[in-house]
Design brief:
Monomer. Pathway: Porphyrin-containing compound metabolism; protoporphyrin-IX biosynthesis; protoporphyrinogen-IX from coproporphyrinogen-III (AdoMet route): step 1/1. This is Coproporphyrinogen-III oxidase. The protein has 452 residues and is α/β, with parallel strands linked by helices. The chain folds into 2 domains: 107 residues, Arc Repressor Mutant, subunit A, CATH 1.10.10.920; 340 residues, pyruvate-formate lyase- activating enzyme (Alpha-Beta Horseshoe), CATH 3.80.30. It has 15 helices and 19 strands. Helix 4 runs parallel beside helix 5 and helix 8 packs parallel to helix 9. The radius of gyration is 21 Å and the shape is globular. The termini are close together.
Length: 452
């Protein structure tokens, strides 16, 4: 395995979309075309599966130096109400596009730090949205909580509003690592919020762990995993730290790069961490996610319903996902659109009655085809091409896969590609073979994190 990681550990996308954001063709995109795609998708899907909403809540009281999210650091909670009022105004602009009441299937609060906002202000936001929609019977509402500022009132308020899944960012329990990434939180605090969630009735509690952080070593990671098992979260995200300090404003210069684990050390964190999680009863789902058998994420994998979008892996799928808030990304299946990236510009555009998108991509027929196959590989670990998939580069792609087949990462049976158990760690590499936009215009500088 070591030699394979040396061979395939290259920069590559995480494929929460296809085409990936650096390869969006903005020359064919316009706000009007985006709205047309939203109307089309809503018409096709609302009466059936419904829609998803992602709300980006960008404020944090402190900067975590490993974070690559769009955020605003402030301790001034007076920003809460004006921002949430803007989110509701943006949602009203989307409502004006719809010909009937939306059926809300999935909603996620991300950040930033959603629990920066008071329980009452979150309730006001959500009740404002819920008053305009029909909530699907099998809805899935989830949010991200910071263990240090998630209160029992937060958990109870959101539970009463229909939330049943919560994700806590743990990262690592080693004090030295926590200091380096400016994310100091005790195991006792994580235990408290996890136990509160369970007592209140949340059916899926998730913890995020990250490997490859500064000063990480195996003994400490082993300790973190064993401490995590004491709390038995229903699912885990076991992410590779994406070191992308060249992306403007991500704040990843809070430590010396020499403090990051070497390639060999990071490899052990990944391999031994994954092995230990599986020995302790977690099942790998998709890429970098694990869960117990009872969790919806695993059940969706078994039922071949696992989906992947800008929120990561989800146990349910909707064709239309509306992203609200500064920097949010929306997905109509036929197009992507990203909102402006500053709070001030976001609020100004909404006040002017404009859907605040700043860039996007309209998918052509080839994009739609390759998106489907890459999504199959990321979620089901297999895909099948048919005779109608007549794209010249496909022959080259299958040729490139032959080396992966000889390395036992994939099995090729006619026009079907299956990622093997050994190949799971290289899922992103397999998907890259079919990333036609990247193949035609390979980046001259590094724009993605490493694949392992």
């Amino acid at each position: 395995m070591n030699s394979l990681i040396d061979k395939y550990n290259i920069p590559g996308p995480r494929y929460t979309s296809y085409p990936t954001v650096p390869y969006w063709d903005e020359s064919t995109f316009s706000p009007e075309k985006w709205k047309e795609s939203v109307v089309r998708s809503f018409h096709e899907s609302n009466s059936g599966e419904g829609i998803s909403i992602y709300i980006h809540l960008p404020f944090c009281e402190a900067l975590c130096t490993f974070c690559a999210c769009h955020k605003r650091i402030t301790k001034q909670h007076s920003v809460e109400i004006p921002y949430l009022e803007s989110v509701l105004k943006e949602w009203k602009l989307y409502l004006e596009l719809f010909e009937e009441k939306p059926k809300l299937k999935e909603l996620h609060l991300g950040g930033g730090t959603p629990t920066f906002f008071s329980p009452q202000n979150l309730k006001t936001l959500l009740e404002g949205i819920f008053a305009t929609v029909e909530i699907a019977e099998d809805h899935e509402f989830s949010f991200e909580g910071h263990p240090n500022n998630t209160t029992k009132e937060h958990l109870q308020t959101l539970y009463d509003l229909g939330f049943r899944r919560v994700s806590f960012g743990v990262q690592d329990y080693d004090p030295k690592v926590q200091k380096a990434i400016n994310r100091i939180q005790s195991f006792e605090k994580v235990r408290e919020v996890t136990e509160w969630s369970r007592e209140i009735g949340y059916r899926s509690i998730s913890h995020d762990l990250v490997f490859g952080l500064p000063h990480q070593h195996w003994d400490a990671m082993e300790y973190t995993i064993h401490k995590t098992l004491e709390l038995k979260p229903d699912r885990l995200a076991f992410y590779s730290y994406a070191h992308v300090p060249w992306v403007k404003g991500v704040g990843q210069r809070g430590f010396d790069e020499n403090d990051l684990p070497s390639g060999e050390e990071k490899r052990r964190l990944y391999e031994d961490g994954k092995k230990l999680l599986q020995e302790l009863g977690y099942i790998e789902v998709g890429m970098d996610h694990f869960s117990f058998e009872h969790d919806d994420l695993y059940q969706s994998l078994i039922q071949k319903k696992l989906h992947r979008n800008f929120m990561g892996y989800t146990s349910s799928k909707t064709q239309l996902m509306v992203g609200l808030g500064m920097s949010s990304i929306s997905d109509s299946w036929y197009a992507f659109a990203q909102n402006v990236k500053t709070v001030e510009e976001y609020q100004k555009m909404v006040e002017e009655g404009l859907i605040p998108v700043v860039k996007g991509h309209i998918l052509n027929e080839e994009d739609l085809l390759m998106r489907r196959h890459i999504l199959n590989l990321m979620c089901q670990l297999e895909t099948t091409f048919d005779s109608q998939d007549a794209i010249p580069e496909l022959e080259n792609a299958f040729e490139m896969l032959k080396e992966m087949e000889s390395d036992e990462l994939v099995e090729i049976q006619g026009s079907t590609i299956k990622i093997t158990e050994k190949g799971r760690a290289f899922t992103r590499n397999v998907a890259m073979v079919f990333d036609l936009r990247m193949m035609r215009n390979k980046p001259e500088t590094r724009i993605f994190s490493m694949t392992v």
